[in-house]
Each structure stands twice: as C-alpha cells, then as structure tokens.
Structure prediction request, 877 residues.
Amino acid sequence: MLTMIGKRLMFAIPSLIGVVIVTFLLTRALPGDPAAYFAGPAATKEAVEQIRKKLGLDKPLIEQFFRYTNDLAHGDFGNSLTTGQPVAAEIRNRLPASAELTLLGLIVSVVIAIPLGVLAATRPGSWIDHLCRVTTTAGVSLPVFFTGLVLVYVFYFRLGWSPAPLGRLDVFYSAPPTVTGFYLIDTLIARDFEAFRSALSQLILPATTLAIFSLAPIARMTRASMLAVLASEFVRTARASGLSPATVIVTYAFRNAMLPVITTLSMVFSFLLGANVLVEKVFAWPGIGSYAVEALISSDFAPVQGFVLTMAVMYVLLNLIIDILYGVIDPRVRLEG
Amino acid sequence: MKRRDFLKSVSGLAAGAALPAMPSSISTAYADARSETLLIVSEGGPNNLDIHGVGTNVPGYEVSWNCYDRLISHEMKSGPGGVPYYDRDKFKGELAEEFKIDDKSVTFKLRKNAKFHDGAPVTAKDVKWSLDRAVSVGGFPTFQMSAGSLTKPEQFVVIDDHTVRVDFLKKDRLTIPDLAVIVPCIVNSELVKKHASEKDPWGLEYTKQQTAGSGAYKVVKWTAGTEVIMERNDDWVCGPLPKIKRVIWRMVPQAGNRRALLERGDADISYELPNKDFQEMKANGKLNVVSLPFSNGIQYIGMNVTKPPFDNPKVRQAVAYALPYQKIMDAVMFGLANPMFGAPKDKPTEVAWPQPHKYNTDMDKAKALLAEAGYAGGFETTISFDLNFAGVNEPLCVLVQESLAQIGIKTTINKVPGANWRTELNKKEMPLFTNVFSGWLDYPEYFFYWCYHGNNSVFNTMSYKSAEMDKLIDGARTAAAAGDKAAYDADVKGFVDLAFTDIPRIPLYQPFVNVAMQKNVSGYQYWFHRRLDYRAMAKG
Prediction:
C-alpha cells in the first residue's frame, strides 16, 4: 500500500511542475494591465510606471518566473492585489469554507441520490424510476445560481425560515477559534452551540442548492451501474441460490456497482469545489471559487496561480484517495495494481 | 421578530426548517447590539485600509474617510431634496482648531487634546510626516495632491508642536479644497515608523492591514472580500461623538440579495444596486431612498478626434443629433439621472458645470449633417464600454447602436473587461465609447483641465486638442487664482460653448448616487467622494 502511495505521488510531481509553468504563462498572457488597473482611475502614465516597478512587472518574464518559483519553494504564494492579503493565508481561510459547503452538499446529495438510484434500478419503469428521472433532469437543467436565488427568495425573503444569506455566520456571532476551519466542527469543539446552530442554518440553503445540482450524475450513475450488475450472471446465481433480495442487492450487486459511483463522486466533488462560484456569489460565501474569479477579473496574477495550484494538488490527492478506496471495495483492483 | 411570529402560527410544519430561531435570552442582547450597530451591505469591499497604499480601491476610501482625520473638512449645507450636502466653498477645522489663509501660505493650529487610536497625541510632526508621505509615495495620492499644487515636502513646515504651515507653490484656487479631500489624512507617524523598513520607508505594509489614525472609527476586524468591522473611537474630539457604536460592513456580491436583505429589514443601508431596483424601492416606499446627482460628473459618448471619421466636427454633430437621449434616461437610468441634453435654443450659457447642451434627437438633421460631411452612405465603427459597469453601459450601447444604425452608422459593440478598460483608455485608440468622469473637486475648470485640455491626460479620452480651448481653460485657472470674476466667467462660458460646438464628447446625463436605507436610519450626508460618512448617522 505504502509503495503504491509513494509511486502515485512521484507520478504527480511532473504534472505539478507543468501546472506551475502553465499557470504562470497563462496569467501573463491574460489581456489587461494590472499596473494600469491598480494605479487607479486618475493615474498618469508615470504613476502607472511607478506601480509597475513596485509590482516587479517591469522585469523580464524569465526573471519574474524564477522569482515566482523561488517564492513558491519558500511557501510564499505572493500577495493578492485586490484584497491586499497574502494568497497562501487567503486560500487557507477560504478553502475550508468551500470544502465544508461542498462536502455537506455532497453528503446530502449522496444520501438522496444513491437510494434513489438503487430503487430505480431494481424497479425499472416504476413510479420511482420516473421520479428519479424527473428529479435528476430538473436538478441538472436548472442553473445553480437560479436554484440558489429561488431558494433565497422563497425561504428567506418570502417565508423567513432561513437566515439572511450573509455568509457563514449571522453577523452578530463571532467565528469560533480555528481548529479545522469547518465551522460546524469548530463551534462544537468550542462548545458554542448558538454559533453551531447559526453556522448550520446558514449552510442549509447553499448546501441544498449544490445537492440539487449534483443529484443527477450520482443518481444516474448508480442506476446505470446497478442495472448492469443486476443483469449479470453472478446476481442470477445468487438469486437462484435462494438468497434474500436484500442480500442480493446490498451485498452482491451494490458493492460491485460502487466503483463507477465512487469515480463519479470524486469527479462531482472536485467539480463542485471549483465550480460553486455561483453559489458562493449568491450566498455571499467567502469561498475559494469567488476569490479566484474576482482575481481573474482584475488581472490579479498571484491568487489565480495559487488557486490553480491548490486545485491541482487537491486533484492529485483526491485521485489517490479514490484509488485506495477502489482497492478497499474491490480486491481485484488491488491485485492488478 | 417576524420569523418567530410566523412559526407560532404555522407550528409543526415549519419546525424542521426553522433551526435558526433563537432562544429568548440572547435575543434581547441581540436587539441592543442591533440598535447601536449599522449593518452595511455592498458589492465590493476595501483592498487596503490606507488611501496612500498601492492601488487602494474606492471602498478603501470609505475606511480612510471615517478612520482618519484631516486638517480641514467641509461644512454641510442643505442639498437637493433637503439632504445634507457638503458645501464646496465653506471649510471648517477638523484636526485644526483654526486656520489662517494668506497670500503665500495657510497656517493650521491643531487641537491640543486630539489623540490617535493608541493614545499618542496628534502633533505637528505627525501632520508634516503624513503630508510628506502623501506627496512622496507616488501613484494616486501624490497625483491627487498635485492637483492642488501640493508637490514638495518643503511646502509643509512645522512651526511648533501644534502649529503647521503649508506654503503655496503658486496661487491656486484648488490648494485649500485639496487639503480637505480624503488623501491628506493624518497618520500616527511614530507608530507607523516603528513598522517601516528600508524597502518600505512609509510603512505602507503596516497601514494596509490596520488603521493608524485619530478618526472617529477604527477598524477592529477586516476579512478581505468578506467584511469590515469598525468600532467608534470614544476619545474622538474633532466633532460631536457619533451615535453609531459599531459598523459592520458585509460584502454581498448578489444585487438581488442586497435588496432582499434591505426589504426584510436585516441590513440597514446599501448602495450599488441596479437603477431599476432603486426606482422600485422608491416607488414602494418601504425604505428611504436617497438619489443625488454626482457632483461634477457626467456620463458621455466620446469620439476619437484624431482619426476619421470622427475627426470631422460635422460627423460628431451628426452623432450628437442621432443619440436616443430620452430613451436612455427612461430605459437605462429609470429616470435616476439629470438630463444633460436638449436645453432650449435661447438659453444663455451659464458659468456652471455640468450643464445641458442643446442637442436633441433629430434624425433628419443628423442625416443632413452626415451627408454634408461626405458620409451620406454611413460608415462602420465599434463602440466600446467598460464591463465593470455593464448594468448601465450595455443597454446604453445597444440603444446607441440602434439609433446610429438609422443614419447609416453601423456599430459593433466591444465589451472591455474592467481590468483592461484603463489600458484601453490610455491607448486612446477606441473610436467610439461611453464612460463616466467625475471630479472630487467641484469646479468647471478642474473638469475641463482633465477632460478637454491639450496636455492630453488619461481623461481626455477623445485626444481632443485645441489651442483655443487650452487658452480658455488656462485663462479660467489663472483668473480663479487671481479672483478676477469677470475674466473667469467669460473663460468658463467660452470653454463650455466651444466644447458643445466642437462636441468631441457628447454629455448624456449626470448620474445619481443612490443609497437605500431603513426608515430608522438618519443622518446620511452627500460627500464629493460619494461614500458613507458614519459619523453623522444614527439609528432609531
């Protein structure tokens, strides 16, 4: 197992180097001049040049690159110009916000989607199959920001059940001391149950929005892969041997159907983490997606590079975890790997 | 608490979803906190707490305005609709107890009991250091200081611990007003010097993250892109103690949510909403909506006069007759702007800016002028706008495109991302575009100096050059400094007339700054910088 992990990590190094080079070049190729942007509306040409010098943008590209990699090696991601903060600190603060939201959304989604997919597969053509089809189609075809806005409109503006969409906590609560960065966990560690309640109620709407969107791939994949497994010979054998339907479905069919579902899950997770920008915007969520997009809009190089790099690292780790999970679920993968 | 009332009536059904309802013990404390707290929601937040910093954005100005003091500030007068409006011509001391202006200099006597947030007294040394800093750091602050002929550290002289003299480089009417803008704020020099380094002699890295002033508020927490929390400085002596104890300023990117927050009563005040929302909120009367014109600001259509076809004044006049002015007012601005077009034919030019021009939508005249210019068949061009303000710019450009097509001018719309907009303006290559300019200092010659003078600043986006125009603008500046009213009036009328006949840029309207607030929020004041002044505000 350890050698496998080591090997996988080795393979990741070239791709990370590639990511560093490509993001550096891509951000430099962006149209727009950060010096002109940050010199302000009233700047003269000299003022713009002064700023350019201050930002080190007057140096040749190759020197900028070496400086950048040198800083990276020291764990310094540079400073964001739009927020004025070190990128590493910002990502550290914002990643848990996004991760907490995404994870919760994914859990809600899995809890609904997998049973729905399994039931739909065991009773193809029944009402539950149609329900599955309708919910997933509706979920995936509604754009996330639209679902988000509708939820805010109904549950906050009209009904008043949900708290104001103002980020992770009600404005009059203070954030718990950071342990994990996940407010749900940190508030419990701090034994601040009021704040826990506030954090949870702030999470409900955005997590539901994400869940609705990610229902489709998970439920459909579960259904398809269950159908394939249920039609296979070992299931027929199990049934013929007189095993109870529950044992057949859960122990034999479901476990075999898990592999593609796990793959889909990992895809959905990484996709959501980067792509929940819109949800973050709607709910004023201080996450990593909105951070990257704002930086991109203002030609702010450092956060964009930092974001892409963090995402690349996350992908590598996620793939590693998935590979390990494969081995746990299906011994054949272990043997072949 | 409406939420709870609702719950009582619906009971069981709602219970599951109603997790946030609070136990009564904390809700009293919550209510107390609310009445002394101002909750502001806006789209963007500051990127730097110090206006002297590199690339400090406009929200950052609001922090500086409230957390730092200046030597002098403006008096208030009653503005349009009875809203307090800063008085361009009247100054009062802020950190200065009194000040004396003579021909060559102005002398400030500082308040003896003024203290910085850390308790250190505000001395003449701090004033000099701060003003030196403003004229030396480069970039925007230095540029703004130079607009009032404040360029050299030698101009700021310490007389004694509580007296400072500012020497004039030359006679300039804008010197005193320029000392009352946001930039010449007084910084705690001893504190900042401790955090300065060789690479950063002015301690910009330190003041970026925390406020080091003597102002009525201090920043206690700042999470970039999320929130700014400010608390009142109870030892503030430069004015009556503000009523608001705590200001929580949250960034809510979604305009619809900002409106929802206001209408539900969760947020106290917001700006930067679409005009349509403001107009609707005004109509339904649940909130106070204040709309005031930008002082010295105009949205315009500009034309690059260095290249054909817009180098021909006839073509420019044709465009000026072809613009759908009223449609823009109604469909884009929802009436929330002052029209800058269609003045009566016989109206004499005033000594004022902005003032409306005499063009109106008249397609026949436009066609005739275009034919006269030799473009009877029309031509093709592009119209550019800044995507940062797409809410207004995009529909505006579409209307212009439609109108120009009627006289044969085919336009393609070019959307420029915010980050590129200034680069594009600097290049001065866009043939046709829309933009806003507004000056902090509310003087016609200030506006014209930036926008029409042949020294071709960034804001002379049309690259307009005319010896006659330069003579009039320079004349007005000299006349203003000398106090020669007759010459000044003649020159101002002269350059306004010339700008309208030559028409390198076509003024459309004077935009409004719109602020929506709860009925129980009072004390809003209009300032030249168009941001909020918390010091005068109150709740309840």
User: Anything to note?
Assistant: Chain A has a mean pLDDT of 82.
